[in-house]
């Protein structure tokens, strides 16, 4: 049975924040020799507050699969970042939805400044977490109960995984593949994408 993955999308979302994990989890195969005739073990869906067209950063238009009311039960929730998080982290409708889904999912994850939404919902209280390098100080200043990690590319604490900025969501998604189906499948997925596999969980840039 496929794992159902919901990616929260919103206006002014950073494109690679959601497209990176979407690509990784969509192209994963358990048997590379049967890639063409098999499906991914992940069923990835886009979820938004409404089913209206979403305008990303750069004005890409995307259509969500579900809105908050019709969203099915999820196994994994991914909360990406982008400029749109600046107001959503104070939107009670978003915080209520994320908090509700956090109770049912196996994995709660964020990419980039998506972690600020999780923190605002108090889901990162007492949790080791990270975010885009430009928002690390903000996370420390505004969310005193979050244990901010600055040197990791992504941070796993229990069933919560947060990643650094933008492209780090790809590595986080490959780790999700590894967590569920092992390193061989994860490496094969990265190779299919012609993407360099993260050998050491260390932030790729110097701050």
Provide a short characterization of the protein structure.
Keywords: Lyase. With 207 residues, the protein is of the alpha/beta class.
Kindly report the average pLDDT value: 98
The secondary structure category is: alpha/beta
Strand order of the largest sheet: 5-2-1-6-7-11-10
Q: Give helix % range.
A: 25-40%
| Main sheet makeup | 7 strands, mixed
Which series of helices and strands comes N to C? EHEEEEEHHEHEHEEEHH
Question: Which CATH C-level class is it?
Answer: Alpha Beta
Give the overall silhouette.
Answer: globular
Count up the helices: 7
Return residue spans where pLDDT drops below 50 for at least 5 consecutive residues.
none
**Rg over CA atoms:** 16 Å
**Fraction of residues in β-strands:** 15-25%
CATH architecture term: 3-Layer(aba) Sandwich
End-to-end Cα distance, whole Å, is 41 Å
CATH fold type: Rossmann fold
How many strands appear in the DSSP assignment? 11
* CATH H level, superfamily name: Class I glutamine amidotransferase (GATase) domain
